[in-house]
Structures are given as C-alpha cells and as structure tokens.
Amino acid sequence: MAEVAERAGAPAGAIQTIRHPGILPLNHLMESKRVGVILATGGPGRVHAAYRSGNPAIGMGPGNVACFVHESADIVTAAEHIIASNSFDHALPCVCESVVLADNAIQVPLKAALDAAGGYFVANEEEHKLRAYLFHDGGLNPAAVGKSALWLAEQAGFSVSEGTKSLIVEIETLEENEPLSKEKLFPVLGYIVVDGVRSAIDMASAMLDMVGKGHSSVIHSNDPAVVARYAAALPVCRISVNTPGVEGSSGFSTNLTRGPVIGTGFFGGSSVDDNVGPKYLVQWSRVAYPADPKVSMGDIAGAIAGLSS
Description:
Elements: H1 2-7, H2 23-31, E1 38-40, H3 44-51, E2 57-59, E3 65-69, H4 75-87, E4 97-103, H5 107-116, E5 119-121, H6 124-134, E6 135-136, E7 139-140, H7 149-156, E8 166-170, E9 188-194, H8 196-211, E10 217-220, H9 224-233, E11 239-241, H10 245-248, H11 298-308
Parallel strand pairs: 1-2, 3-4, 3-10, 4-9, 5-8, 8-9, 10-11
Antiparallel strand pairs: 6-7
C-alpha cells in the first residue's frame, strides 16, 4: 500500500506500520505529541486508550448486526442479500450480518431461500462439532477468523457442498452464554424466529445491549411503517433497508458516506455518528470576514488576486 501510494504522489512514509505490535508501543505512539488525530478501531480497550491519550481521537464501536426479515419482504432477494453479505470477505467487516431475525410468518420459505442462496443449516452432531471448533474458553478460536464456510466445516469435522457460502445455526436465545448471538468474524449466522416487529425490536435491542450500541442494523421489509418503527426503536446510527448490510451500511448501495469505518455516535461512546471519510481526517483553517453585506469586498478581491499572482 505504501509503495502504491508513493507512486501516486503521496509523501514517503505516509503509510507505516508497527512491525512488532503491543500495548506499550501502541500507547507510546498514541500519546506522542507528533500525532494530529487518532482513528481507533477494534475492541473497547483500544478505543478508550485512544480517548485517554491526550490527542484528538475518533473511536469506533463493535458491530453485531441484527438482520430482521419481515413478512412483507421479498424473501428470495432478502436471502440472497444476507448470504452475500455474511460471506463477503468471510465476514471480517463489522457491517456483515451476525444474526437473522426471521419473522415467524415467513420463516419456512426464508430457510429454503437461504439454503438456495448458499447457506447451510448446521444441526445436531454437526452443530456440536462446529461450536467446539469455533469457540474456545468463551472466546473465538483465532484460527477460524476470516476463513471460508467450507474450510470451517472441514476443520470442525463435517462436509458441506462446494457452493456453501455461510453456515447457519438456529438459536433460541440472545445472551452472554450464546456466542452465536455475538459479533463473529467468520461466515456463521445465528438464526432465531421472532413473532412480529415488537419481538424483532426486543431481540435486536438485546444484541446491542450485550455487545455495544450505535453501529448498525438491517431490515428487509416492503412496509414503510414497519421500517420506520424498527429504525426509530433501535439505538444505532444507520439502518440498511432491503440491501446487504456490508454494502448498505458502508454507503456503497445507499446514500450514506462511503466507507467501512463506522462511527457509533453517542449511542456507542463515539464522537462521530457518520461513516468516517476524508472530511474527518482533514483540518481546514477558515478565514472569516464580516457577514455584514455593507463591508466592501473590493480590497478582499484585490488581496486574493495578489496572492494568486
């Protein structure tokens, strides 16, 4: 990246890395007086350390994206969007769907559509094997992060078809003891049946309370009143409607600011509720003249012309 940037005209050293990362060198860097601004992503500890550094900081929050599929949705399209988004980059982006909230009225055709789109419902002994591989001592198995659904199934000890893009596990609760209801960094979806909009809101809120508020949510519905009710109830800064979360919340299929660095706003303890783009990382000095229209602009125009010459 540094080589490409410099060939395009960036100053030498514009992109650098800490070759031996650790807490001490990271804190030393963030506290340096040569730092203009910090854009902190990752876990809450890192973000809080950035805010404590004494330098200007923009902190991101965790994504644990709930995706509600309402009975009014286009079921086939919704399923295709969910699988495409959850499997994008093997679910590493924080905007990928984490748990599907399936409206009870359409959950049977939704399961069939998810299966047709490349999802594979894992159950019984296969589910036990998958859980044992993915989660160690209450945390994620680091070897599983960013791996494909095919690779995860093979490592867990069962096989799936070549076209499988996401592994789906039906769950009954959203709580601390259910790791599939938390943010995941591999293409595995939790799937839970809800009874209408109110139940979906309660479930999505429980996920946000557990992992962190402010990030994003997804809804598939062709009823504007349902979309408005869902969006107004959730403490998140962006709700993608009828589009994959990875594209919608990043602004590539919607009119949000383009970028995958997601501000969580006051909900999530961030100073920014927008997607962080260049405007947040560039500082401008503003020359301000009187707003009174009676003030002559002649001298100002002359001074500007002198500067340009």
